[in-house]
Amino acid sequence: MSAVALAAEHVPERHYTHHEGRGPTPHRSNPVVIHRELTTLDLRPHMRVAEYGTGSAYSTELIARLVGPEGQVTSLDIDAYLTRWANIILAERGLENTRCFTADGTAGFRERAPYDRMVAWCTPPLLPKAWTDQVVGGGLIVAPLPIADVPNMTVVAKVRVRNDEPVVEAVFTGGYIEATASPKGDLDLPGRWVDWENRVPGPSWISLAWRAQDDRLHTGARTALDRLLNAAHTEPYEGGDVDVDWPSWRTFAAALGNPQLTMAGLRPDLWAIGHSTTESAAVIQQDGVILADSPDSPSLFALRDWLTAWENADRPAPETYTPTLIPTGNGQSPAGWHLRLSH
């Protein structure tokens, strides 16, 4: 049995996720993926660990047990309610090597650096340089990272830092809630890169990789979303089930690097990925329904080509792509690296 599995036997998950005093915590990750990420992190006794996204603090106790009483766990969350309660619950459990702070984790936490390991349960807009600066040489970061500048296009990356430079050793299927500058209330709306949203008569939103070409009134985003909501053409995807292979499809679409990449939420809990321009729009939803502004839409033809290429590639898993970290330039803020995948 792995060290993480052994530690989990002594940590009552529900005590954290449904604590009587604090109440249920909606911002929490699946224990299965928590265990996977902590296994990838290769935690050992005496290590100093930074955790971004305290959530219920279930993962915090697991880390504390894995590094032992001589180790140190620093846990950050943007939500003060969560960090205050986490400190209390961890103290109730008799843990002395953990401290939870209310802070923007994308800036790291220099006060308790350096760290041997970092793990994130929320997705920054890129790999922050602040993180790599605060990790010891040879240290590891395990975090979800965007692979395109639209929501929900993420993988979990294992990053080794040597000589102040990060190198991606592996990527895995996965993703977590976006890191935001304030506590996130609406869990159905992405935390960033939403170029237009409607709240009436029902919630819907759209994200464009070509937002820099849109005008200040977001005319392109508004028009594309309207075209999809009032799609003149629909068709079932002949390739079969898309929902099961959604991580494969979204990774493939992101790895194309096409500037017309578009993501939308036309109904709650139903994501859509596709192609749009100032003149056309087409997406495929997770339920396998393709929507387009017309049967002869240029965006529809482009989307069909993408789907054919995905099938011809045998629906590759995210783990099969080659990762590349691209540093931000020209004094962009925040400083760091964008993760991109190629196949």
From TrEMBL:
Signal peptide: none annotated. It comes from the Bacteria. The keyword Nuclease does not apply. Residues 10-30, 320-343 are annotated as: Disordered. Its main location: cytoplasm. It is an enzyme of class 2 (transferase). The keyword Transcription does not apply. Its EC number is 2.1.1.77. One of its GO terms (cellular component) is cytoplasm. InterPro entries: PCMT (IPR000682), SAM-dependent_MTases_sf (IPR029063). It is found in: Cytoplasm. Residues 10-22 have a biased composition (Basic and acidic residues). SUPFAM superfamilies: S-adenosyl-L-methionine-dependent methyltransferases. One of its GO terms (biological process) is methylation. GO terms for molecular function: protein-L-isoaspartate (D-aspartate) O-methyltransferase activity. Keywords: Cytoplasm, Methyltransferase, S-adenosyl-L-methionine, Transferase. Pfam families: PCMT. Residues 321-333 have a biased composition (Polar residues). Belongs to the methyltransferase superfamily. L-isoaspartyl/D-aspartyl protein methyltransferase family. This is Protein-L-isoaspartate O-methyltransferase.
